[in-house]
From TrEMBL:
Classification of source organism: Eukaryota, Metazoa, Ecdysozoa, Arthropoda, Hexapoda
SUPFAM superfamilies cross-referenced by the UniProt entry: P-loop containing nucleoside triphosphate hydrolases
Coiled coil, from the record: none
Membrane topology qualifier: Multi-pass membrane protein
Gene that encodes the chain: LOC115886556
GO molecular function, one term: ATP binding
Family annotation (PROSITE patterns): ABC_TM2, ABC_TRANSPORTER_1, ABC_TRANSPORTER_2
Protein name according to UniProt: ABC transporter G family member 20
SMART domains: AAA
Transmembrane segments: 564-588, 609-635, 641-664, 676-695, 732-755
Membrane recorded as keyword: yes
Record's subcellular location: Membrane
Domain ABC transmembrane type-2: 531-758
Keywords linked to the UniProt accession: ATP-binding, Membrane, Nucleotide-binding, Transmembrane, Transmembrane helix
PANTHER family: ATP-BINDING CASSETTE, SUB-FAMILY H, MEMBER 1 (PTHR43038), RE14039P (PTHR43038:SF5)
Length: 760
């Protein structure tokens, strides 16, 4: 153990709280001790909470005040278990947030975040139903509460969609969504922004009303400092800790101030003067304002050592840690009241088994209802999402893999004088100009567009200028030389051998077109030559290549690039559509704060992921069915195998993409970074997985990576199913299935772990 870490251990032991102290903390609604929270890195920390103590007794309204950016939202997020402290303790309703059985996050807490965090497409009624159902309320209970809330918060008609409401109305709906399930602890982050004074007063009256029986506790932040006069307690936050924590009346009277704003100002002045000049400043301030014992939290004005020293510090409303003068709010428990068992600590351990266990049927049902409702309200988007892969498949089928049409070639034929009117097809063995017969043959049987030129310069210029893909030059006595070559065989004179050749000068800047031109000229010559020999009564085989391709075992005579690319294309399109769909849906929820809100309501990461999987699965099922129908029955791509295997493998590819989408949504904080990651992974996957070029052409070192990627085995497997008709018993086929299943598992695990631990 290093010296630093043993020091830390010692310090932790010294700070370990007593049993009685813990019991006191458990009795409060919220109790925060020595909270330290920073953003940024260890070397460049941006400290937000710095030894903060907070005590919120049950049944009180606690006004959390502080300047913008001082860390109120961060503190609230830590209290509801959505962010984690770097050190310190938080107790909420007797347990630690996030611990098993604490009920926090969960229906015991109602959290209204600063942002609206609602589904714009839902009506007010649907919004309240969603949050009410999540918290276990029945539809009847929700309807009753809805009626009350609509009247009380002066909401418009419950059938209005949230996105069509004004900003202030949306905030009120957000507030209503927090109140609908009557939680024990209400945490409200600026609920009264944009609310008119009358309604603001009503809201405060309501808060007073619901807390008076001691069953509900409210923590509220606001920028209207003076509205918190109705709070039972106020915490004035500045510089990472509380300057004071007391009732508003007491603060005002103790500071001899006119308003709470005044109090805050005076405390800030004291704090600003800092440690060294503290005595003189305090002197100056207290000369004009009498500050009674216990009014100022000394942690705020003293140095850090003092603020951190005691585990007891802050168990009371305001306390001078040096003089130990207390004004106790939370009663100390008697010895009999202290149970031997402590509430559970926050459990940060990860167990996949536990993740899977935490799936509640009712939560899943509500989440699925929400997902489908969102889709229903966004029919144009959904039509686009389902139609896009179909459109792309149609485009693929009509654009990829076909032979180029009407490829222009320039011809200079010295066998015949220019212009070439006489260059016509003449039947028979004695045809004088075989070159004319050959050109006619290829023009009729291949998609070549032949143009005759008088000189080689002109023909070459056409190629140079891009008007033609090759220049063909036929020597003067081509036909005679060719005849001599066929008749004399090995005794053909060298001159005849030379002049029986057509000279081709291609433009090879486009590999595909050059290959097609070469293929058509060679195959055309061979076919024409054999036809000609037949007319001469000679066995056509004389002109054939000494190699014969028999009927293929798999596939057809002509290799087809469309058939080669189709399996990879289908998997890629379904995979990446699922990536876009899932990451988009999840980022939308996350960035608008809806995800956080649902998680605080008790939804688990597993439920959230699985509900997305089930919903998106329906979409993907539709996409896959349509893509396969378009590709095979409509565009007649080769399909010699099992439809079941083809369908299952494609669906698995989509599931895998969906899980990759979860990883993107969980790891990326913004839509932009998610887009970069999704786009950035698209081309590498397309290139490395053998989708546009065979993996057999890759370097053996690259194959190590390629083999492991999600779509490589799957593409090969799908190719074997549809082109060769192989079954699941074949190793190449089942390894495609296994590889996709493995990746689904890997992606899901990464997503679950990230969701669990990425609390900030
Ligand atoms: N995830 C984050 N990463 C880095 N800094 C953050 C993060 N979240 C908040 N901050 C910073 O921490 C500080 C406290 O933010 P917080 O939202 O808690 O303040 P606040 O008191 O609620 O402010 P306001 O009253 O304006 O809502 C701010 O300066 C903010 O920029």
């Amino acid at each position: 153990m290093t010296e630093g870490s043993s020091d830390l251990e010692l310090r932790r032991r010294q700070l370990k709280s007593q049993q009685s102290t813990l019991q006191t903390r458990k009795q409060n609604a919220v109790c925060v001790r020595r909270a330290y929270k920073r953003y940024g890195t260890k070397s460049h920390p941006y400290v937000i909470l710095d030894g903060l103590n907070m005590t919120v007794p049950k049944g009180c309204i606690y006004g959390l005040l502080g300047a913008s950016g001082c860390g109120k939202t961060t503190l609230l997020n830590c209290i509801v278990g959505r962010k984690r402290l770097n050190s310190g303790e938080i107790w909420v309703l007797g347990g630690k947030p996030g611990s098993r059985g604490s009920g926090v996050p969960g229906p015991r807490v109602g959290y209204m975040p600063q942002e609206i965090a609602l589904y714009g497409e839902f009506t007010i009624r649907e919004t309240l139903r969603y949050f009410g159902w999540l918290s276990g309320k029945t539809t009847q209970e929700i309807e009753t509460k809805l009626e009350f809330l609509v009247n009380f918060l002066m909401l418009p008609d419950a059938e209005r969609q949230v996105k069509n409401l004004s900003g202030g109305q949306q905030r009120r709906v957000s507030f209503a969504a927090t109140l609908v399930h009557e939680p024990e602890l209400l945490i409200l982050d600026e609920p009264t922004v944009g609310v008119d004074p009358v309604l603001r007063q009503n809201i405060w009256n309501h808060l007073v009303d619901i807390t008076k029986h001691g069953k509900t506790t409210v923590i509220i932040t606001t920028h209207y400092i003076d509205e918190t006069r109705q709070a039972h307690l106020i915490g004035l936050m500045r510089g990472g800790y509380f300057l004071a924590e007391a009732s508003p009346e007491r603060l005002i009277s103790q500071f001899n101030a006119e308003s709470l704003e005044d109090v805050f100002l005076k405390l800030s002045v004291i704090q600003n003067m800092g440690k060294r000049r503290r005595s003189s400043v305090l002197q100056t301030v207290t000369d004009t304002i009498p500050i009674p014992a216990g009014a100022v939290n000394d942690a705020a004005v003293l140095d850090d050592e003092v603020g951190e020293i005691s585990g007891e510090f802050g168990d009371n409303i305001s306390i001078s840690s040096r003089t130990n003068r207390r004004v106790s709010i939370a009663p100390e428990p008697t010895a009999e009241e202290i149970p031997s068992e402590l509430p559970p600590d926050e459990d940060t351990g990860f167990r996949f088994r536990d993740m899977l266990k935490v799936v509640s049927f009712s939560h899943m049902r509500v989440m699925m209802w929400k997902n489908f409702l969102w889709m229903w309200r966004n029919i144009p988007i959904m039509a686009f999402i389902i139609g896009l892969p179909v459109g792309q498949t149609i485009l693929f089928c009509i654009t990829i893999g076909h032979d180029p049409k009407n490829v222009p070639l320039s011809i200079v034929n010295y066998e015949i004088d220019y212009p070439m009117e006489r260059c016509q097809y003449k039947y028979g063995c004695n045809a004088s100009h075989l070159s004319c017969n050959y050109f006619q043959y290829i023009a009729d049987n291949y998609s070549l567009d032949l143009t005759y030129y008088a000189t080689e310069e002109e023909a070459r210029t056409a190629v140079v200028k891009g008007k033609s893909w090759a220049m063909l030059v036929v020597p003067h006595n081509f036909s005679d030389s060719l005849r001599s070559r066929i008749e004399l065989g090995k005794d053909t004179p060298a001159w005849d051998l030379e002049t029986s050749k057509i000279h081709v000068t291609p433009d090879k800047s486009n590999e595909n077109i050059a290959t097609f031109v070469t293929r058509d000229l060679l195959f055309g010559l061979e076919s024409y030559g054999q036809a000609f020999l037949k007319q001469c009564g000679i066995d056509p085989k004389v002109f054939g290549r000494p190699i014969r391709f028999e009927k293929p075992i798999y596939g057809y005579g002509q290799p087809d690039f469309t058939d080669f690319a189709a399996p990879g294309f289908i998997l890629t399109i379904i995979f990446f559509m699922a990536v876009a769909l899932t990451s988009g849906a999840m980022l939308l929820e996350r960035n608008e704060g809806i995800l956080e809100r649902s998680l605080v309501n008790g939804i688990t990461a597993t439920e959230m992921l699985f509900s997305q999987v089930l919903t998106q699965f329906v979409v993907m099922f539709g996409q896959t069915t349509m893509v396969l129908i378009v590709a095979f029955p409509i565009f007649h791509l080769t399909q010699n195998g099992s439809w079941l295997l083809l369908f299952t493998l494609t669906i698995l590819g989509g599931l895998c993409g969906m899980c990759f989408g979860f990883v993107i949504a969980c790891t990326c904080d913004t839509e932009r970074s998610a887009t970069y990651l999704a786009l950035g992974s698209f081309l590498p996957i397309v290139m490395l997985c053998g989708i546009i070029w065979p993996i057999q052409a890759m370097s053996p070192y690259l194959l190590w990576i390629t083999d492991f990627l999600p779509l490589t085995q799957a593409t090969e497997s799908l190719r074997c199913v549809i082109a060769r008709g192989w079954g699941i018993e074949d190793p190449i086929v089942y390894s495609g299935f296994l590889s996709l299943l493995l990746w689904i598992f890997i992606f899901l695990t990464i997503s679950l772990i990230t969701l669990k631990f990425k609390k900030g």
